Amino acid sequence: MDPHPLPTYLSKVLALSPPQSTHPPSTLTGPLTSHTGLAYLFLAVSADHPRLQVHSYPAIHWARAYISNIPTPSAPITPFAPGGGDDDDDDDRPSPAVLGLLSDGLAGPAVRACVTKDLAHVRVFLALLAQVVEYILSAPTAAAASSSSPSPAAALHAPSPLPPLPTCLLHGLAGTLYLLRLIRHWVPSSAPLVSRAIVHVSDYLLSPSTPWTCPSPSSSPADRHGVSHGVLGTLTQLVLTTPPLAPSLAPRLSALLDLQLPDGDWPSPRDQQQQHHHDDDDPPETHASAPSGGVGFTSGPQGLVISLLSLRPFFPALQDRIDEAVRRAREFLWAWVRDPGSSREANLFRGVLGTALAFPKGPQRTRFLALAASPSPPPETQPSSSTTTAFTTSTAAEVAAAAAAAGVAATPGSLMTSPSPGSAWAHSVSERELPRMILYNDV
């Protein structure tokens, strides 16, 4: 293994996906896969390794280079866009805006604020979010909905209510919370500015009338419960942003722990509701434990472990269960990776790099990092262009959700789905006892 892997991987990132002077809309797929994410990678590396230089420049220089030409939307983000206008009724429904980590419209200004430490960019971010906050404030609460009983005639002519905003990390308000916390961390003087939005977004997510939903490409249990599209990702962002909320979220976390299988895999392929309410006349359906280690951080046991290690201090009553869940998940992942037929993808979201971060410092983590450096990962041979990309917004969502069946290849500059930038992050934090996942729980 390279004795100095971090500068090597950062140098490869610059060679394969250099900063661009222009960014067509098709390349603005959110920080998970766009140059906005690379800007943040170099910013984070510059803080952890201030003396590191790449091609004779400090890492912060490259952070500025990557973010400098990311465009900022010219108008605030509207909570809902008009429907498609086709004859199909579904196409006429308003489409919710992307408010999470698949949005460069929000993430670009947020990362620019973090790189520059300029409150003017913080205000730009908040201005872009203003209509979303206004919608949240005008959304009916559960109490208001139950107390108001319109007449049948009024109900008949009332406009159809807008659907709730998406709540998950990739598409929704959990991702918004992460970006607000990111700004608060990197620009400490911004705390008074961002606190109002944090409170309103958190209150909306905690309202009994707000379902936790996501326009996920799959309705699998992994999506419903996991990090990228599901409950675990939303809960983690709420608690890390506002720790005093933890007691109110303990029942949700307990339910997530209940979904772990005896062998340590997570989540269970069956909902709790199905487990507790199956017909007594029918024997419960059995499911073999699939080797879902390949699902990775985004929807599998890796995401459970990395999340629980951050959440543990805030849930003292659940710490014994959390410790047991982490132990079993690690045993499952260690057994899985020793299987010769298991996946060796070298990326953070669904590969062995994300798995490495689920283990403590020591030989097991080192083993996963070595696997990621082996020749098996798909080659990165073509530098990215300012005019071409393998992603559209929809395919980026599928890749970020580890939907391997979509057949979409990662671009060399994709922080979460490509080997070089993912390896750079993993090695940047590999000496920590409890490394965190970038763009999730790193701040």
Automatic annotation (TrEMBL):
InterPro entries: 6hp_glycosidase-like_sf. Residues 382-391 have a biased composition (Low complexity). Keywords: Receptor. GO terms for biological process: carbohydrate metabolic process. Coiled coil: none annotated. Residues 77-98, 261-296, 372-391 are annotated as: Disordered. Gene3D superfamilies: 1.50.10.10. It comes from the Eukaryota. This is Abscisic acid aba receptor.
